[in-house]
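Work Package 3 committed the consortium to producing structural models of liganded targets before the mid-term review. Because experimental data for this complex are still outstanding, the team generated a predictive model from sequence and the ligand definition alone, so that downstream docking and mutagenesis planning could proceed in parallel. The input record is reproduced below exactly as it was submitted to the modelling pipeline, together with the SMILES string for coenzyme A.
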Amino acid sequence: MNIRFVSADSRKEIQTTVGFLAKQSLGYPRYNDWVGRAEAELHAGYKRAILAFSEDCLVGNLIWQPHKTIQGAVEWKNLRVHPTVKRRLFGRFIIRQAEEICGLTVAICDVRTDQKDTIRFLLACGYTVAAILPLYDSEKPDAVMVKWLCPPIPDRNPLEQLGKTFRSKL
Ligand SMILES: CC(C)(COP(=O)(O)OP(=O)(O)OC[C@H]1O[C@@H](n2cnc3c(N)ncnc32)[C@H](O)[C@@H]1OP(=O)(O)O)[C@@H](O)C(=O)NCCC(=O)NCCS
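The resulting structure, written out as tokens with the ligand in place, is given here.
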């Protein structure tokens, strides 16, 4: 068995990440445009990626970035694990490492509400559903899921800002 997890820091690793991202859209509209922007932001260091390899094949990834509007929050993007290695804790390991290394206080991600397995996975990892909103199109709502990565700070609550951000999108 040969399993390894790496931060995609070099140009080559970023190219590998982008190739992997381009393969599956996860049902998001204008996905290819997003992949193009993600590539630029990975090279700029604003987005970061963790890659999982099994027997030297890329089988999983997570993209993360500081949240664009919520101070102190990290946002997970495009967590995915190849079907051949699902339910072997690759997903849990990747997200746990990202929670540790991001250095931020609360983690946020959005999932299409029809991706029930992913929602179950995030619930199992300690995330809760903070809101159900149509973030990308009016047809399919998204579940916004959050987890504190440190004890909540009452007078600096990023979730209050999160609530305002959601209300402004309604
Ligand atoms: C969601 C996903 C990342 C989970 O990765 P994974 O490596 O298979 O999950 P893990 O093995 O780490 O699961 C950890 C726990 O989460 C829960 N879980 C994971 N997948 C689940 C499923 N399909 N149904 C119910 N619970 C699930 C379980 O409690 C599991 O622990 P257990 O297997 O000991 O019971 C993976 O299925 C995936 O890539 N899905 C498709 C892409 C996707 O929707 N990405 C999200 C975009 S934000």
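Reviewers should note the following from the model. The beta strands are 3-7, 48-54, 57-66, 73-81, 106-112, 128-133, 142-148. These observations will guide the Year 2 experiments.
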